[in-house]
Amino acid sequence: MALPETNHAKGLLLTAIGGLALTVDIPLIKLAAGESWSILMVRSGATFLAALAIWLAWRAFSGRAVPSLIPGRAGLAVAALYGLSSLTFITAVFTTSTANVVFILAFNPMFAALLSWVFLGERPRPATFLAMAAMIAGVGIIVSDSVGSGNLFGDLMAGCSALFIASAITITRATGKDMGFASLVAVLLPFLLALWMVGHDGFRIDHPGWILFNGLVIMPLSFFCLATGPKYISGPEVAMFYLLETVLAPVWVWLIFAEQPTPRSLAGGVILIVALVAHSLWQIRDGRRRRAARVLRHPV
User: What's the pLDDT tens digit per position in 55-83?
Assistant: First the structure.
């Protein structure tokens, strides 16, 4: 049996890899320069094919048990939530700024804390409530900049995407099951919807190579790692690695496309990031202190 420390290190490594890979998702979507439904169809279809190929190869050549594609009813729920998050995420990317998308997605850990309180009985501590208040203020500043500008719908879609991801993380933590492939199979839902829409509206992607690379390599890598992480580490620790996208994606987009955040979006984003980093570091430190205290009370 693996030691808890080994599992924790494995979880941190997996989520770090997944978080770093995720930072190039939005830049690759923009580099493809296509219509939203076409982008979603190719991205989702390529991700599904890659996930299926990896699973079949793993099953054929591995002597150990292979994780299920959909582990029971909980797996179906997680897959549905990740599928919905893909739909709302692509919608947000095409209807609001990159900075707004990633800053609002950073609300994910606070959603996870609230859901854990409601469904798992894990009452947030006072520090979490303080962080929530700061993050609500930050999101309010970002959204206020979109009122009347036509971007409010995109901001709401980004918020929905954060909620869906937090719900999937909560279910994964509650069941303890390996949901790495469930998050990848989930793209079948947005693929089928996008396929139907493209059949009506037509297909247009100017540079399909970028979105194929995104779907075949980046999405399987990031989705699998980030969805597997909650099996080994806490929800706040997993959510913290989503912050890599919050910090780095606007930088990549600014360097490639010269898309600069508005002052309000930047101010709200800074509040979100500071609150999240401070709270996540406190949560990790508090968890380690509690584990150490349990070891002292129950020496081996």
Answer: 888 888 876 677 778 888 888 999 999 99
Is residue 11 within 8 A of residue 229, CB to CB? The reply is yes
The Cα–Cα gap between 256 and 27 comes to: 8
Q: How many CB atoms lie within 10 A of CB 125?
A: 14
Q: Which of 166, 158, 126 has the alpha carbon at shortest distance from 269? A: 158
Region for residue 72 given its phi and psi (left: phi exceeds 0; alpha: psi -120 to 50; beta: otherwise): left
Are residues 19 and 241 in contact, defined by beta-carbon separation less than 8 angstroms?
yes
User: Alpha-carbon distance 212 to 210, whole Å?
Assistant: 5
Specify which of 48-52, 173-177, 258-262 reaches the highest per-range mean pLDDT.
48-52
Q: What are phi and psi of 207, to 5 degrees?
A: -130, 80
What is the SS3 assignment for 131? helix
DSSP state letters, 20-59: HHHTTHHHHHHHH-B-HHHHHHHHHHHHHHHHHHHHHHHH
The two tokens of residue 146 are: 């979109």
Q: What is the mean pLDDT of residues 143-164?
A: 79
DSSP class per residue in 49-118:
HHHHHHHHHHHHH-SSPPPPSS-HHHHHHHHHHHHHHHHHHHHHHHHS-HHHHHHHHTTHHHHHHHHHHH
**Lowest model confidence (mean pLDDT) among 37-41, 122-126, 143-147:** 143-147
